[in-house]
Amino acid sequence: MAVVGLAAALTVLGDLRAGPVPSGRTPPKFDPAHSAALFVGVRNFTEDRTLANVRYAVDDAVDLAYAVSMDDDSRLVVPSRVVLALSGQAQKPESQRRLEELQARGAVVVSASLTRILSQLDAQRGRVADDGLLLFCFATHGVNDEGTQFLLAADSLLRYRQTLLSEATVRQVASGAARSLILIDACRQQLRADQRAGEPDPRSAAVLLEKRMARISGQVVFSAAAAGAYAYDDDQRGNGVFTANVIDALHCRAATGVVTVERLATFVEARVLDWIHRNRNPRATHATQLSYEGDTNRMPLVVCGKGR
Is the pLDDT of residue 194 over 80? Predict the structure, then answer.
């Protein structure tokens, strides 16, 4: 099945607004060369040895970066405007090869320390033009502290909140872009290395995201875990369950025609929930969370069909 990129999707959908556009003006044509992306994959935690590895976090970051930057037909960002903040090694040989290809095409790899992630959030935001897309993706541990979601960097210390990255900070940085998409594959069930399997740590349960975000223009946040629930790894895919299905959706398994954010979310929710029913909890009713501003749930990502 052929795939046509966001530029074509915006053309197909005419005056669909993927971000805030003043009344009477035509939205700028999408240009992946004016986008920027940061993919964070934290498998290993260097300072807090009590934290369990996030087995496929680096694979998630690399595979998703590859999916949205290396295929000319489904490109959301060019490789030279991709930054990967990584801690640890990819587990799949395929992901290791993809990382080499990304670097050969200009993608930059940096450490996944808190200060480096923060500096790259700012830097990548500054590179995005109005006709581009800002893409932030996180695969790591997440912790819930009194209703605030935090993401862990490689050098985070669980007991010191000032060493963690709040989701609110990520949203705030992204809010300056006309179009932004934030994907969070965090809230892993096993938070501590000394924790027995099958006993989820309540500190890592996902918080409830607001369905619509006030005063933040053109922003979408899609989270791998429903409120009070967890994100999981798929050993058969070698990815997080959430990330694996996001990639499938962007490869046109979600729909024939336009894959919007809403269609992406519907597809991923159904697939992740089915996995949870089969592997964890047959009584689960929700699997993921989507939070968005205005009509950004209608933002087109790819167009799928037999012709271009």
Answer: no
C-alpha angle 39/43/47, rounded to 5°?
Answer: 110
Q: In the structure encoding, which two tokens stand for residue 68, read together?
A: 């949205």
Helix, strand, coil: what percent of the chain each, to 5? Answer: 35, 25, 45
CB atoms near residue 57 (< 10 Å): 31
Judging by beta carbons within 10 Å of its beta carbon (0-12, 13-18, 19+), is residue 218 exposed, middle or buried? buried
Q: Give the tokens for residue 164.
A: 């963690």
In 3D space, the residue among 210, 193, 190, 194 whose CA is nearest the CA of residue 202 turns out to be 190
Distance CA 205, CA 227 (A): 7
| Percent of the chain surpassing pLDDT 90 | 69
What is the rounded distance in angstroms from the CA atom of residue 181 to the CA atom of residue 136?
Answer: 6
What pLDDT is recorded for position 10?
Answer: 42
Q: Strand 289-292 and strand 219-223: pairing?
A: antiparallel
Secondary structure of residue 167 in the 3-state scheme? helix
Going from the N-terminus, what domains does the chain have, and what CATH number goes with each?
2-12+29-189+201-305 (3.40.50.1460)
Backbone angles phi, psi at 37, to 5 degrees: -145, 145
For 67, the enclosing helix (H) or strand (E) is: helix 57-69
Q: 258 vs 308, which has greater pLDDT?
A: 258
Inter-residue contact 196 to 279 (CB < 8 Å): no
Q: Give the type of residue at 186.
A: A
Residue 123 DSSP class = H
